[in-house]
From TrEMBL:
The keyword Endoplasmic reticulum appears for this protein: no
GO BP: carboxylic acid metabolic process
Protein name: Pyridoxal-dependent decarboxylase
Cofactors demanded by this protein: pyridoxal 5'-phosphate
Coiled-coil features, chain-numbered ranges: none
Record-listed N6-(pyridoxal phosphate)lysine modification sites: 339
Record-linked Gene3D superfamilies: Type I PLP-dependent aspartate aminotransferase-like (Major domain)
A GO term, aspect molecular function: carboxy-lyase activity
Amino acid sequence: MPLVSPTPPADIQEWQEEYLLLHQKAKHYHSHKLGYPVSLMASLYNEQRGKEDIEVFHESGLERHKIINNSVLGILPGSLAEMFLVNVGDPRYESNSHPIEAKKIERDVIEIMTTYLGLSPGKGAGYVTAGGTEANFAGLWWSRQYLLHKNEVLIQKISHKIKTIKQKHHFDQTWATDVTNDPAETLDKSKALWELYSLEQIFKQLLYPSIFFTETHTHYSILKIAQQLGLVCKPVKAQEDGSMDIASLTDMLKEHKAKNSYNPVIVVANAGTTVLGAIDDIPAINTALRQTLTSPCTYTIHMDGALNGVTLPLLKPFEEVDDYFQSIGVHTIAISGHKFLGTQAICGMILTTQEFLEHAFPLKTHIIDYIGNIVDITSSGCRSGLNIMLLHNAMCSLGLHQRDYSKLRSLVKRNLENARYLSQKLKALLGDKEVLWQEGRFNVLFKRPSPRLIVKYNLMPAFADHVAACVLQNVTRSLIDKFIDDYQTELTTAIKHTDQEYALAG
């Protein structure tokens, strides 16, 4: 039975027409699928209404019955949100075994964002993740893969030397304790043992890169990921504003080069830390790496741009740059979809260049046959097609697919104006020393109010006796004024109570 294209509603946007076609395709294949182990129970109607062993409910206006009722979640029966949409493996390639995919839409998401960040059309790569942590994981995993393949010849050479020494000499406990050994043979074996030890140390250095990041300010997921990938953690001192101290990084890189000359380096650079919204000086980080780490030591830079990655071309923290990849030394970028872009489902993006990904995953590696003989460069494997479409719809609604950044620019401008407004109100209330805000940041740090206000306004606990507010699209002047009034009332009440206590004590 051929698929019939649905008639689009009058108010549908041109990029949304593809969603309708995918909906029709999903409805068709859901009732014809014999393969991949997914029951589709939530999206299919129970055809056997008379079965007494299955509890079903009747959907108003429909002849069939449902087993799972998703209407309480606001999901309309038979809608696209109720369909099973899954993307498997590298979005650059279609999967022959999974026809119900949103891979074209996922490719559009990556193309829209990498082009926005300055890459030429077709030069970007990546995929949509389950959130910022997976995006960071993929970025660091890809970096490690890239560095391994970059040093592949050297790794193979050292591995061969290690095998040769072990085949020629037998280093067992008997040899080490036998006093009757020939002195010349003992000396020869001792030299070989030292060479073996040295080669194994170099081999270990090449396999497990060191990761440099700003201590206390870098997202906690980086530590988890470093443990999972076997990366050696090297926390770098932070400046007062939460950004990486470049002088400290440079000193640490020099020491690293002197002690671990073969050990590759990954630097995690922040573009909008969780609490302070700090943006690291990434061009300066790149310069420090280039000037300090000469061959054979190799390196990559991963940018954690969970919040501010979307705003970089508008905020221009590094002045005018051609792009936010090669021109500033960045290899991978992690961006959250649910933070600045505000998708209602948690999702993210890991972005890189085609060239970098091809070096990290050479042809015919990581190929999985049962998903269509395609490469899988993702850490999650299966990904929600619905999340991908939510992210795509948000980006297109802002005009990013047409390279129209006026809506996004207006949002950034309004958010920064409101952040400035909040900081001014707080300084008038608390004094300048109790409030920290910098131009170009959405985060405002200030003296901690009562637990009641922290909960009521969902403030983020920060350092010592301070909290942070993050001023994004949901924050209005009226909300700020209401919070300031509450805070002022709280402070006034506290002062009155203190005065009464002093009076009673006197």
